[in-house]
Structures are given as C-alpha cells and as structure tokens.
Design brief:
The protein is α+β, with helices and mostly antiparallel strands and about 70 residues long. Strands 2-3-1-4 form a four-stranded antiparallel sheet. It contains two helices and four strands.
Amino acid sequence: MKKTFKLQDLDCAHCAAKMENAIRKLNGVKEVSVNFLMQKMTLETEDDVFERVLQESLKIIKKVEPDCRVIL
C-alpha cells in the first residue's frame, strides 16, 4: 500500500531528512519520502503492516518535530 500525507508545520529540511531516515529503518517499510518543499510524506509498505508502520512513523515525526502535524 502506498499513501501520501500532508505535513503541516514542517520547519526545516534537516528535520525532514531525519524523519525519512528513521522511518526507512522501520520493519515493513518498502519506501518512504519526506519532501520538505512540498510538505508531504509518501509511505509505502505491505498492506497488512501499513497501519502499524504509520503509527510508528507518526511517533518518529512527533519526536523529531513536535509541532509538525500529519494530516491523515
């Protein structure tokens, strides 16, 4: 499954890169892209683990950039 999410209040490209690298290491992630300029995250996983990976990704995003919100 592949979905794109809007990121609100992502403040810097360095934080976007940190998020992308951390999410990429999660078990089950096929591909992830966090685009600072477009303020979007694209996440691709197997269908059966998508929700778990998404929840773990949301935790990583909050840890790296506490003010950033993911529009689901």
